[in-house]
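Let us practice reading a record.
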Amino acid sequence: MKLENCRNHTADEIETTITMLGNGADGFCVYTTSNSMLTKIGKLLDVPDTAWKLEKVERYSDGVPSGYFFTCSVKNCLQLKAKKRTGRELTEEEKEEAAVRLAASRSKKRG
């Protein structure tokens, strides 16, 4: 589903809020003003038999969307993943050893 973009917001104004449903109800609600999030959720709305549903569109007085409300009836549609570390931290001794190995490798190549 192609969703109309929200008005251009500054970085501080863009938000996505996820609210888990309680009291025996499965699923969650999503409110977003982020156009990139709208693109992702719009693709999910197109999937046959999707658990995602567009609930409401908030609009400014000129008709431009200011935010969207969605619900998803299945909790496991939401995945929270820990970001993997980008690299390992070396001690000073390990850095020196690596520098020696690198220098030896470079001198071999130059040869």
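A brief commentary: The CA atoms of residues 1 and 47 lie 9 Å apart.
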